[in-house]
Amino acid sequence: MTRKVRKVLIVGGGTAGWMAAAAIGKHHGGRLDVHVVESEDIGTVGVGEATIPPIMDYNRSMGIDEVEFIRNTQATFKLGIEFVDWTRLGHTYFHPFGKYGVQMHGIHFYSFLQRHWQAGGTRSADDFCMATVAARAGRFRFAPANPAPVPPHTYAYHFDAGLYAAYLRKLAEARGVVRHEGKIVEVKQREPDGFIESVKLTDGRVLEADFFIDCSGFRGLLIEQTLKAGYEDWSEWLPCNRAMAVPCRRVEATTPFTRSTAREAGWQWRIPLQHRTGNGYVFCSEYMSEDEAASLLLTRLDGEALATPKPLRFVTGRRKETWKKNCVALGLAGGFLEPLESTSIHLIQTAIARLLFLFPGDNFDQAAIDKYNRMSRLEYEDVRDFLVLHYTAIERDDTPFWRHCRAIRKPDTLEQKWQMYESNGHILTLPGELFQDASWFAVLQGQGVQARAHHPFADIPDDAELDRRFDLIARDIRAIVEKFPTHDEFIRATCAAPPVEVKKMA
After folding, report:
1. For 309-363, how does the pLDDT look when each residue is reduced to its tens digit (9 = 90+)?
2. Is 312 left (phi over 0), alpha (psi -120 to 50) or beta?
3. Is 487 helix (H, G, I), strand (E, B) or coil?
4. Of 4, 7, 26, 78, which is the active-site residue?
5. What is the CB neighbour count within 10 angstroms for residue 188?
6. Is 228 labeled as catalytic in the residue annotation?
């Protein structure tokens, strides 16, 4: 049966719902009638306060002014993630937004570092990445035009996800998107194909549409409760299934990076905003209770807690079909990968991009739906493997949780990448994969995975010439970063948000 798509209903607001509404509202060219139904009585999870650089692509596509966005969302800048106590207690490494050094002789710079280390050298990879050098120094500025032959840093943001959703809602409504307040009590499917036809609200209103976007969170009101799409549980690889989250008063100096600290039964995030600091403890309920996690989290904050820790319960994995019939699931309704590498908002963004590209016209083409689902599956699996790397490339065995992680059987796709790196130092990623070679290198070497060999072209310069090049690159990066203001100086001078009174919440 054909079904011309003229009206779209987005079920659920939050970050996913309003990102979708803003994007469709901007790009449909007056062809669609776009509606959002949400209830102020239903809270949002709001786990996505840290982002990765592609968020700038989404904002630019929306015509969002960067400074205005930063001020409206209390945002700060992010140059990467600092990982503390992951490999072993007392050990720290940095996953930066940016490349290491420069390509030489047609190969990646890290191949020359591998040669250096295999010969007993002690230089740190951190010295050759501008994002890492700037983050360690607490400095930031928008990426300058570099006269020196070194790659510039890239960056992302920390922001208040609730404020971001509110900001996008204003944009969407200004472009004609209509919001409905209310709770859904019934979903009606049509005969005989089971396509969703309408939803009914508690006050009796019926909202019909041709195409539905499920942004209802973990429960998946449309995609799972109605259409039974199924869920693929990845707990065998990613065992954490709980989080306790709490904001605290901001510290005087904010850092231009997220911090992830490995703890007894999981890890703790720290995300500095202009008006407060976001904190959370992600853990496995088999090894720690929610009360214990909340208690420990409250003792490890930089400032006074502004609320009671909020529990979040989840099962890591993905919906088996994120597009089924005339419904697409976005955000938590489509799957959940814990926020270890700040991918939650990015996965919403890429799903929206796929949807816009494959948007249905006068019918729902099953080939297009199948393609969408295959692309979604591959993307989730790529990110999953990168997260599993953090849990399995470890020396820690000091708690039952970390002993469990050491015994995790890696997915075959991760095992192949790992073995190739160990045997010959190669990192092979495909176009379209989120985490490219620099990210894999940062975490592999940061967590102690050593390459036994290196690319043969890395032997072309002799030792003296390689040392000279190392010195020049490290010197040029230091010279550029020394001219950056501190992170807070830059924010005060360019994009400080209006001051707000941050009160303690119940």
Report:
1. 999 999 999 999 999 999 999 999 999 999 999 999 999 999 999 999 999 988 8
2. beta
3. helix
4. 78
5. 12
6. no
